[in-house]
Specification:
This protein is mainly beta. It folds into four domains: 222 residues, outer membrane lipoprotein receptor (LolB), chain A (Clam), CATH 2.50.20; 132 residues, Cathepsin D, subunit A, domain 1, CATH 2.40.70.10; 131 residues, Cathepsin D, subunit A, domain 1 (Beta Barrel), CATH 2.40.70; 77 residues, PDZ domain (Pdz3 Domain), CATH 2.30.42. The protein is built from eleven helices and 44 strands. The two termini are 39 Å apart.
């Protein structure tokens, strides 16, 4: 949300790059003249106030930019959503609703910040300020209007297209591909301010119009001075967390279901509610829980997950949240209609939490004892046997340098994923992994907020993360064209299939983790030996996908079938969906006798399990 807004707030300091080819240089020279020419030469600091409307929310923003050095800071207030973003020339940072600051070290944020800085310093008009490759990408039309399009790649940044009106020579739009979005920002309502032409209106879209961000500038001033610390990350906010009863440690059990960690939480003294614990997950509750607590919901922001679809997200506030013997106050919560996700999990879903806890406490996840421990961060010093792995933050997700069978990349560490490893579709394509692994099995292998995720399934030799490795991991080669698994900056998403082999100490304040091998470390990684994906459906389990050539397909099971019983145990009533998924991982040769309903008819199908990868 925050990087999305700051990209839009740069509307009045568009730039392009150095070393332009002759045609591009002519277009840029005409553009500079049309937009104020030499009046831009002496601009140093630009101070802008604006109104924002996005996703059913409205509010204000204030932005300060250094048009010589490229630093910037933007603060916004959309009612339930408040925060800030900044770049001081070296560090990219973001500040959330509670005032917590996170340094963004991932490539997506770093390259995005360089592009923003490039435009902030008008480097397309002043190539000596930052080098870039600039090529003329051709003449294009949109309706009756014609445009000259320049493809600009700042040094250290990523390509973006600058559209310039062929008749007026005024900058009309920017098109830039981030990790998973193609974002287009169009500019309008140009006005002269101290001899410089400035856009007083803009709209940014990723193609889903209901999530567009509209900016209307109220004032622009050009200033000679700014506070020396104006662009630096702000100091920590007043402490909003702690422990009950004067303790400095709180330990609580979790349930591991579908490789997901579920932990009891209390909200405003009500509950407990079982929430899924996710490293990068923001606070989330269902509308059902929000209604039960009498909370007001506002807005309809864009929510995404492992699938390719978007889902509306409303915002609310919780005054007090307890997790075992620890607490957090004044927590912003997203409200997402996850109730239907219970059909995927095979159990009721009430909410998700994670990042806000990791950001405040030192956290130990003990997958051997199924316990989580929250530790006072002040003065913390690790002294165990674990291997230290440094990480960077990509928004709220920890990312680690590693490799899969010698192919290097950056991997997201995700306790909210049930998989061992999912490789992103751009990484799969870039490294020709389909040809390398020659997969024979494909199908639905996961499900997120955005729906089902499909992949080719293979067994790799070794996954390495920093100084630790896991042999023989089951790997999904994603086929996604959108959503989280189409991320162009990450190699893959490491889930609980890998993480549960370790007890892990997470120290977000110092951007480090400690991996301690546990009793699960050497257990074989077993993939579904039946070859189906099933969710809850009606009185049984609905078959969503049957893998071609799998034991289930050979036995005659079909998509749309409803499994009413397994080995005589009634689905849902005597056998839960998570238990059925465990049954499908039993030893090769095991026979599952399924009572199936198809088109109103009853039949029995016997599936003989075998390894598919």
């Amino acid at each position: 949300m925050s990087r999305f807004i700051i990209a839009v707030l740069m509307i009045f300091t568009l730039a392009s790059g150095a070393r332009a080819e002759p045609r591009a240089a002519d277009v840029l020279a005409q553009s500079k003249t049309a937009m104020g020419g030499g009046a831009w030469d002496s601009v140093h600091f630009v101070h802008t106030r604006a109104r924002i409307e996005t996703s059913g929310l409205a509010g204000s923003s204030e932005t300060l930019e250094d048009a010589v050095m490229g630093a910037s800071v933007s603060r916004y207030d959309l009612g339930p959503v408040k925060g800030a973003d900044g770049y001081d020339g070296k560090t990219v940072w973001s500040q959330d609703n509670s005032g917590q600051v996170a340094v963004q070290g991932a490539d997506d944020a770093r390259q995005g910040a360089i592009d923003d800085a490039y435009r902030t310093i008008h480097a397309y008009w002043y190539p000596e300020r930052m080098p870039a490759e600039i090529v003329y990408a051709g003449a294009k039309t949109d309706g009756v209007r014609g445009f000259d399009v320049l493809r600009i790649t700042p040094k250290g940044g990523r390509p973006f297209d600058l559209w310039i009106d062929a008749k007026t020579h005024i900058i009309d739009r920017i098109v830039e591909k981030s990790a998973i979005d193609l974002r287009t920002t169009t500019f309008d309502d140009y006005r002269s301010v101290a001899g410089k032409l400035v856009a007083f209106a803009s709209r940014t879209t990723n193609g889903e119009a209901r999530y567009d961000t509209v900016i209307k500038v109220e004032s622009v001033t050009f200033e000679d001075k700014a506070d020396a610390q104006a662009f630096a990350p702000p100091p920590p906010p007043q402490r909003d967390f702690g422990f009950l009863g004067g303790r400095t440690v709180a330990t609580m059990p979790f349930k591991l279901i579908n490789n997901h960690m579920y932990i009891d939480v209390k909200l405003n003294g009500r509950g407990p509610y079982e929430f899924l614990f996710d490293t990068g997950g923001s606070n989330v509750m269902t509308p059902t829980v929000a209604h039960e607590l009498g909370l007001k919901l506002q807005g309809a922001l864009q929510g995404r997950g492992a699938g390719e679809k978007s889902q509306d997200v409303a915002i609310t506030m919780v005054d007090h949240m307890e997790i075992g013997g620890a607490f957090m106050d004044r927590q912003a919560f997203a409200s997402i209609a996850l109730e239907s996700f219970g059909e995927v999990e095979g159990r009721p879903i009430t909410g998700i939490f994670g990042y806000e806890v990791f950001k405040r406490f030192v956290v130990r996840t003990d997958y051997q004892a199924n316990q989580m421990t929250l530790i006072e961060p002040a003065g913390f010093k690790y002294s165990g046997p674990g291997v230290r792995i440094p990480f960077q933050l990509k928004n709220s997700i920890p990312t680690v340098a590693g490799d899969i069978d010698g192919v290097p990349g950056t991997f997201d560490i995700d306790t909210g994923s049930r998989s061992t490893l999912d490789l992103m579709s751009p990484f799969v394509a870039k490294n020709n992994l389909i040809a390398r692994y020659q997969p024979k099995v494909q199908g639905v292998d996961g499900w997120g907020v955005g729906g089902p995720a499909r992949a080719w399934i293979v067994r790799a030799h070794r996954l390495t993360l920093g100084g630790v490795s896991v042999d023989g991991p089951v790997v999904g080669l994603s086929q996604a064209t959108g959503g989280a698994f189409a991320d162009a900056y990450s190699a893959g998403n490491v889930g609980a299939g890998t993480l549960k082999r370790f007890n892990i100490v997470w120290d977000y304040a110092n951007l480090q983790m400690f991996f301690e091998r546990n009793a699960h470390y050497s257990e074989p990684d077993v993939f579904n030996r039946a070859g189906i994906w099933a969710n809850l459906g009606g009185a049984g389990f609905e078959v969503i996908d049957v893998f071609v050539g799998s034991p289930a397909a050979e036995a005659g099971l079909k998509t749309g079938d409803h499994i009413l019983a397994v080995d005589g145990k009634q689905a849902q009533r005597e056998l839960t969906l998570p238990d059925f998924r465990s049954r499908m991982r039993e030893a090769p040769g095991t026979k599952l006798r399924l009572d199936v309903e198809r088109g109103g008819k009853k039949l029995q199908i016997v599936v003989t399990l075998r390894d598919l990868v």
